[in-house]
Write a structure and sequence with these properties.
The protein is α+β, with helices and mostly antiparallel strands. 18% of the residues lie in helices and 25% in strands. The protein contains 2 helices and 10 strands. Strands 1-2-3-8-5 form a 5-stranded antiparallel beta sheet, with no helix packed on it. The longest helix is centred in the first third of the chain and has 31 residues, at 2-32.
Length: 255
């Protein structure tokens, strides 16, 4: 009897371990359906992610991941709207708050080259051009009036303001996909890319890109020798976009 009882206990332990593993895989799998959309979108001209970190209390840090993708004119995902009518590149970014501390992201600022034309960060009602991946109900967008260029004539930065109770991005939370457009392409191999800054709540200070490896793609004025290559790249991106799994366009702007 003792041997039989031991055998039943062993079977019970194995069953519990299998159930625990299955639950963990389910959680990881469900998280991966959202994370990485921009970073892994190979239809984009360029795509990827950077991690920004600032140590705060001992081993605890305020940090966030910023995914990015840049789409050639007319090749953006179907659930985006394109306020440029397919004439501009669309620059897209998504923030994920991966901090060790319970701190909320309140402001995202991205440097720009003032000599380059940018547009369409918000519509005529001051609502951000920001989108949620279909099925993602947790993404947060900036508050109304919270997406703007620093100086409309010659912007030196793009700003997305999340600083009110309904829009601050909490620990383990993420933003909607934040966009603007430009007739200019991004620099190749990181050339001309700019630093980013994320502001957290007091008493924490901002975190920002500390090296070119942490910079994000922004529009640049291409050198004459690269114009031909950019045309070929744009045509290639358009060809790849024909094979995208088209969905019915959805309007996911923040209100």
């Amino acid at each position: 009897m003792a041997a039989k009882g031991h055998k039943f206990r062993e079977i019970g332990v194995r069953f519990a371990l299998v159930a625990l593993l299955a639950t963990a895989l389910l959680v990881v799998g469900s998280a991966s359906t959202r994370a990485g959309f921009l970073a892994d979108d190979f239809t984009a001209v360029t795509h990827g992610a950077v991690s920004l970190t600032k140590s705060v209390y001992g081993s605890l840090s305020f940090h966030a991941d910023v995914e990015y993708a840049v789409y050639a004119p007319g090749t953006a995902p179907a659930f985006f709207s394109d306020p440029s009518g397919g004439q501009h590149y669309i620059y897209a970014y998504e923030l994920s708050n991966t901090s060790d501390l319970d701190v909320k992201i309140q402001l995202f600022t991205l440097g720009l080259d003032s000599a380059v034309s940018v547009a369409n960060i918000a519509d005529s009602s001051n609502v951000a051009y920001a989108y949620a991946v279909p099925g993602d109900t947790d993404a947060l967008g900036p508050k109304t009036g919270g997406a703007y260029f620093s100086t409309p004539a010659k912007p030196t930065s793009a700003v997305w303001d999340f600083n009110d109770a309904a829009h601050r991005i909490p620990q383990f939370g993420h933003s909607m996909i934040l966009t603007y457009t430009s007739p200019n392409p991004p620099g190749e191999n990181g050339l001309g890319w700019k630093s980013a800054t994320l502001q957290g709540g007091a008493p924490l200070s901002a975190i920002k890109s500390n090296s070119p490896a942490e910079y994000l793609p922004v529009p640049v004025i291409p050198e004459p020798t690269t114009l031909g290559m950019l045309v070929v790249s744009a045509l290639s991106a358009s060809f790849v976009a024909l094979f995208r799994c088209h969905r019915r366009p959805l309007n996911h702007q923040v209100h």
